[in-house]
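Retry 2 of 3 after timeout on previous attempt. Resubmitting structure tokens to design endpoint.
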């Protein structure tokens, strides 16, 4: 089975989320936790963009034990030199070069020709290759780029010695079947593509970043770029935890392995949420507070009989202690009895029926039923512990 590498860009693309600002200590804490989680590559920042990023990338490169650390860079030599200064002491110096390749970007943003984009890319890859062990080059806005041009430019950067080519869906525009076809096409038609790593990098503007990343893997991507909790520009990036757990739970389907230590997922998500102030929605897959909570009577009854009836992921797999049976107006007697037992009571059936009725009346008026509420109901019925 081939292995997919996780490239985490929480500290670079993730930090581009409007209003988000992490200081050096916070970035270092996150990087150390990403290392514990087992991500293959940490993109720690954009060293040439400002002094704080330079220092932070340098510090992370020195501190991290297992992950490879990389930094983003434009194609200009001064950026590449600065990135080298920041990363030269790391175990496996790696640079991430990027330039846009779509017509709309080349014309309106870069004001260049396609030939100039190829020329500058080739020159930058050659220059970076003289210094770094691993050179990654990204075709920004690849998913809105003509496949013929992508084929041409990729062939040239491969000849120049690139190790990894990343094909971002910069504006979250593509669809799963389209991105899968794109990866398949480029893998088959670009000369030398079989000797390099192909990477995906999806944004969530249409809510498909994770689905698109998984489809890219199906199409042949060996690296996925993502962020913790899906933070990032606009609607954010593909979330690491969702891709990782999907690949794990559906290993039978995707047929790929990964190096992540999944029980570190919840802790990593909570740390990023706390340090960024970015609240994780309750219904967020994998890490939301409701991801392992059941409220309806039918579901609670099913889970109590056999958890796999309504849970495809065990909470422990991602570092969550246990699932939750939330008591509310839809809860059934089975879950209610469970809670009563958990609180140290074991009333006979008749008493339990009465208290359950009182509980239902209360749940119709009150949204959150606490343990204290249940205690009060038991006490009102004079149930003895
Ligand atoms: O979304 C994007 O295209 C990027 C590149 C710089 C890789 O973040
Ligand atoms: Zn991006």
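Retry 2 succeeded. Sequence:
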């Amino acid at each position: 089975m081939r292995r997919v590498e996780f490239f985490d860009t929480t500290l670079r693309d993730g930090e581009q989320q409007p209003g988000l600002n992490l200081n050096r200590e916070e970035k270092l804490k996150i990087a150390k936790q990403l290392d514990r989680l087992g991500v293959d590559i940490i993109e720690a920042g954009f060293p040439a963009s400002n002094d704080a990023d330079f220092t932070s990338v340098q510090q992370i490169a020195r501190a991290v034990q297992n992950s490879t650390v990389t930094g983003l860079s434009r194609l200009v030599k001064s950026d590449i030199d600065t990135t080298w200064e920041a990363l030269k002491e790391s175990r496996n110096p790696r640079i991430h070069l990027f330039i846009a390749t779509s017509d709309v970007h080349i014309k309106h943003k870069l004001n260049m020709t396609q030939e100039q984009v190829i020329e500058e890319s080739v020159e930058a890859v050659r220059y970076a290759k003289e210094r770094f062990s691993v050179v990654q080059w990204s075709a920004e806005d690849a998913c809105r780029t003509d496949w013929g041009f992508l084929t041409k430019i990729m062939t040239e950067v491969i000849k120049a010695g690139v190790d990894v080519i990343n094909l971002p869906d910069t504006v979250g525009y593509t669809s799963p079947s389209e991105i899968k076809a794109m990866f398949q096409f480029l893998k088959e038609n670009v000369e030398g593509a079989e000797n390099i790593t192909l990477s995906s990098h999806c944004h969530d503007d249409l809510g498909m970043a994770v689905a698109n990343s998984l489809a890219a893997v199906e199409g042949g991507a060996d690296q996925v770029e993502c962020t913790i909790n899906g933070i990032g520009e606009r609607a954010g990036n593909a979330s690491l935890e969702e891709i990782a757990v999907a690949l794990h739970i559906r290993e039978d389907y995707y047929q790929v392995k990964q190096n992540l230590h999944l029980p570190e997922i919840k802790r990593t998500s909570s740390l990023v949420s706390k340090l960024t102030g970015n609240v994780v929605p309750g219904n967020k897959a994998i890490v939301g507070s409701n991801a392992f909570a059941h409220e309806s009577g039918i579901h609670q009854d099913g889970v109590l009989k056999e958890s796999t009836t309504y849970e495809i992921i065990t909470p422990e797999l991602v570092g969550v202690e246990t699932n939750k049976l939330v008591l509310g107006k839809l809860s059934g007697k089975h879950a209610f009895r469970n809670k009563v037992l958990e609180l140290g009571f074991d009333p006979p059936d008749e008493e339990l029926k009465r208290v359950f009725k009182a509980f239902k009346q209360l749940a119709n008026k009150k949204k959150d039923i606490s343990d204290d509420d249940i205690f009060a109901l038991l006490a009102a019925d004079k149930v003895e512990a």
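Attempt log closed. The first helix runs from residue 24 to 37.
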